[in-house]
Each structure stands twice: as structure tokens, then as C-alpha cells.
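WARN retry 2 of 3 for item q-0093 after timeout on previous attempt; input resubmitted unchanged.
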Amino acid sequence: MAQRLLPLAILLCAMLISPRLGIAFTVLPVMVLFWLVYGLAARWVRARGDQWSTDLAMGVILAWSIAASTPLVGS
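OK item q-0093 returned
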């Protein structure tokens, strides 16, 4: 659980230090949705496949979801 709360706490602290990072607030819902949806899928895929390929694929999907949603919500 701490591994999921630490990035959120760091992001919150960064937004408090620099208000220009307010756009980073759009990352929070994307991260929570990623953990809910893709986390369950990753557990199923990892049970059937290789750990490293699952981790890499889930990391790429997280990066894409953040990059794709930030400009849409920020504009």
C-alpha cells in the first residue's frame, strides 16, 4: 500500500511547492484508474506469463494513459 501512496504524496508536495504544477493534478485520477483496472489485469496476466514482460507492458500502458489524458483534461 505504501508503494502506491508514496508517489501520490510526492506529487501533492510538488504541487504545493510549485502551484504551476497544478496540471499534474490530472494525473491523480488516471493513476487511480490504472491501479484499479490494469492492476487487476496485470495480476491475471502475471499468473499466466513472465513477470518482467508483464511489468514492462503495464509500465508502458501507465505512461501512455498519463501522456494521453493530461492534454485533454488540461486544455
